[in-house]
Amino acid sequence: MAAPSTATFLSFRSQGNALPQTRPSAVRFGSRYSLVSFSGLKEVTSVNCETESSFIGKESSTALRGSFALKARKANRGSRSGLQLVASYKVAILGAAGGIGQPLALLIKMSPLVSALNLYDIANVKGVAADLSHCNTPSQVLDFTGASELGDCLKGANVVVIPAGVPRKPGMTRDDLFNINANIVMTLVEAVADNCPDAFIHIISNPVNSTVPIAAEVLKQKGVYNPKKLFGVTTLDVVRANTFVAQKKNLKLIDVDVPVIGGHAGITILPLLSKTKPTVRFTDEEVEQLTVRIQNAGTEVVEAKAGAGSATLSMAYAAARFVESSLRALDGDGDVYECSFVQSDLTNLPFFASRIKLGRNGVEALIPSDLIGLSEYEDKTLEALKPELKASIKKGIAFVQKQPVTA
């Protein structure tokens, strides 16, 4: 089974001298090469995957290498100028002017799989779109401001990403966060249901343990709920787990993969250190220290920013990784795995974060093997997190059921 791992994002590299032109050129996003028209990059016709600077891991890139070699051969038979892969997916970001939305929009703008990037917010989004539109990547950037333009933003979207809401601030309780963000998510998902019900929906707005059930209830009331296409983005927990383990054990980061299950807040986050790849031994003390640090990493950033914000940059990076994985799956890559908070039957909870396989229709499969053969510590921690996660899920469902969704 291929499993994604963390790393840095896009790197442009021309072969030979950089020459302004409009013919297809090779561009790397993660370990995926595509041919797109970038001014200033010289055309090449080779495909080369380098996992050291990718969103995905070694095993996934091996599959990609074979896939793109095949595409290269087919494309070269029909084109004198070499590979021509046309970006074809529309991504909408709701909350694009915020602390997560802006860097996320930049990262998605860099993906050669995106042809249209629609940015929505209640204010200040026009400048973000104008700024991004100057980047010489192929996607067209459009801005949409306020409720009256939300529907137009969403029409035809393949992937909708929702980072909208307020960030967690020092002293803010989860109830405070919930009361503000629940209404925002409910309103936005109503619009998704009305305008692009078949889109992949990526929920970033916290508390994800409640906002994903909120989204599900809204979609159910609208009659368009597809559990395979609703995702709570928990990728940041995996990104942090991989980073912290690599630092602790002096491992090459690209090789490290730690599945993270449960939920996306505090003790509901459970990194499965016993399932770490490559196999590595941890003392009991290391397991507890790493688990607690991963669970509280968001607070670590909030406190370090001293009231000036929360984890915006790392969250944008993690969300971009999940968007890229979704786009790869939509594009036909059959070897895409991520952890996500989704409707699940792996436990007695209706929603649960675990590793999933992504395909063109969303969740192709839940991966139960990660939950088999857990350590004693992980077994106990899993049972301990369930009551809190269950309460958060019920809270989200109750919120929508008390407030009828508009037709």
TrEMBL record:
CDD domains: MDH_glyoxysomal_mitochondrial. It catalyses: (S)-malate + NAD(+) = oxaloacetate + NADH + H(+). Keywords: NAD, Oxidoreductase, Tricarboxylic acid cycle. One of its GO terms (biological process) is malate metabolic process. The keyword Coiled coil does not apply. Residues 234-400 form the Lactate/malate dehydrogenase C-terminal domain. GO terms for cellular component: cytoplasm; mitochondrion. GO terms for molecular function: L-malate dehydrogenase (NAD+) activity. Pfam families: Ldh_1_C, Ldh_1_N. The keyword Oxidoreductase applies. Gene3D superfamilies: Lactate dehydrogenase/glycoside hydrolase, family 4, C-terminal (3.90.110.10), NAD(P)-binding Rossmann-like Domain (3.40.50.720). Its EC number is 1.1.1.37. InterPro entries: Lactate/malate_DH_C, Lactate/malate_DH_N, Lactate_DH/Glyco_Ohase_4_C, Malate_DH_AS, Malate_DH_type1, NAD(P)-bd_dom_sf. It is an enzyme of class 1 (oxidoreductase). Residues 90-232 form the Lactate/malate dehydrogenase N-terminal domain. Belongs to the LDH/MDH superfamily. MDH type 1 family. Homodimer. This is malate dehydrogenase. It comes from Gossypium hirsutum (Upland cotton). The lineage of its organism: Eukaryota, Viridiplantae, Streptophyta, Embryophyta, Tracheophyta.
